[in-house]
Amino acid sequence: MLSVQQATGGYASVPVVKNINFEVEKGELFGILGPNGSGKTTILKMLSGILPCKSGEILIKGKNLSEYTPKELAKIIAVLPQHSSQAFSYTVKETVSLGRYAHQKGWFQSWTSEDEATVNRVMEQTGVSQFQDHDIQQLSGGERQRVFLAQALAQEPEILLLDEPTNHLDLSYQKELLDLLGVWSKDCGLTVISIFHDLNLAGLYCDRLLLLENGEVNINHVPNEVLKEGRIREVYRTKIEKLPHPRVPAPQMVLVPKRSDSEQHPIQIDKGSLELREGLLLLQSPIPLKTMSSGVTGSGSGWNRTFLNRHVRKDYDCSDHRAEMAEYVRQIGFEPGETVGMMTAVHVEDYSCTFYEEETFSVCIVVTAGVGNAVDASKSEQHSHHLTPGTINTWVFVNGSLTEEAFIQCIMTATEAKTRALHDQQVKDAITGTIATGTSTDSILIAATQQGENLEYAGTITPLGKVIGKGVYECTIEAIQNSQRRIRK
């Protein structure tokens, strides 16, 4: 559809972009990225014919851009600039109707039913129909942006060029606009080429991305290859991290703000951080800790300051345990969104806690454990699916900075150690008579201060893994024995 070959161009005698090469296929949503001054808008102006190529060429449908007349080009390419302005006081519908100029014929250009239908359709698609009789000068910046988008679409172009299309739009309209562009590109074959300042929107919606640096192509590839931490840090000269989108296979970049000296004051989670109330084991951190857990509240990955393990009766109704737990957390004065909350049928007073201090990091481990609903995971198909309050709850607090890999390895190492503890205590599955590997609703928490030593791994023979393995093993045995002593009394 469009091919840019060794294109160099700019203003006066100074080239802004140099030897640019890329191609865009029909129906592709193609994003252009780069810091301010990297040449993004210059390329868009060259593609639309506003700026000429000083060398190289731009081909559209196999024909050189310079060979098209302005009206021929307007039937193929529509442009939505970054800052659209309207010198005359037209209504919204009149403004959108200007987009039909390229399709009108003869000296006395007449308005056809096709023109009318097209204008009404694009106004509906862009959400401006309700303003069609309003003076465009009376609209907000975001509303005007949608009107000029409708005007561009009224041209019924094959290629749509956009310079930061979400500029001035609030969050909902950003999503609606880009959703529409995605649908038009895939279902209607519209080729969309857009400049993006928001890397995350570009990563979510674009098929391919062109990253510019100092007027030259840094990379032209799929979003996951373009949006890499090292590359973006180098090109944009800022601290940034890459994360996967939680719902769709798209990369997302997050800024990492610089912390003040007061925010970097080191903290330590240890035995003294624990508070035992009636039926409740509580730990409150002075700063949010990065967490990975299977708690009733705070499950998954997140940042939390409050951690609680709550005793409930064995006949506790688990039918809506998440809502009930959230309400309980509120009642005792905490926010569920900032709390990892667990529950257990054993008495929390029988917990076991140990603290290990190494040269560059330290670990605090807390376990409550009973074996009333012990299960052998390899034979779990013999059990009926019935939720009961968690029996073995394991907390691992690391005073150090964990990688994502280390978080997962912490869970693996802690689980292996717990399983070994059950084996050595000869805890058996009541249904199968075999050695249990856990209970049916065990929960685990890994929390890290993300300060100090960078701990990349937590496998069983790494320094961190050795501490977690030893600590979880010893605490699980002690907690089981504490619980069993209570039962025997």
Write the layout of secondary structure elements.
Blueprint: E1 2-11, E2 14-24, E3 29-33, H1 40-48, E4 55-60, E5 63-64, H2 70-76, E6 77-80, H3 92-97, H4 113-125, H5 141-154, E7 159-163, H6 171-188, E8 191-195, H7 199-205, E9 208-213, E10 216-221, H8 223-226, H9 229-236, E11 240-244, E12 251-255, E13 274-277, E14 280-293, E15 300-311, H10 321-331, E16 339-344, E17 352-357, E18 362-368, E19 374-375, E20 393-399, E21 401-402, H11 404-424, E22 438-439, E23 443-448, E24 454-455, H12 463-488
Parallel strand pairs: 3-8, 3-9, 6-7, 7-8, 15-16, 20-23, 21-24
Antiparallel strand pairs: 1-2, 1-4, 4-5, 9-10, 11-12, 13-14, 14-15, 14-23, 17-18, 18-20, 19-22
Helix pairs in contact: 4-5, 11-12
**What is the SS-derived class?**
alpha/beta
Class of the largest domain, according to the CATH hierarchy? Alpha Beta
Q: Can you give the helix content as a percent range?
A: 25-40%
State mean pLDDT (0 to 100 scale). 89
Number of strands: 24
Span of the ends, CA to CA: 82 Å
Q: Could you name the CATH topology of the largest domain?
A: Rossmann fold
User: What is the CATH homology-level superfamily of the largest domain?
Assistant: P-loop containing nucleotide triphosphate hydrolases
Count of runs of 4 or more consecutive helical residues: 12
Determine the oligomeric state from the structure. Answer: single chain
Overall form: elongated
Major beta-sheet overview: 8 strands, mixed
In terms of DSSP E residues, the strand content is 25-35%
Ranges with pLDDT <50 over ≥5 residues? Answer: none
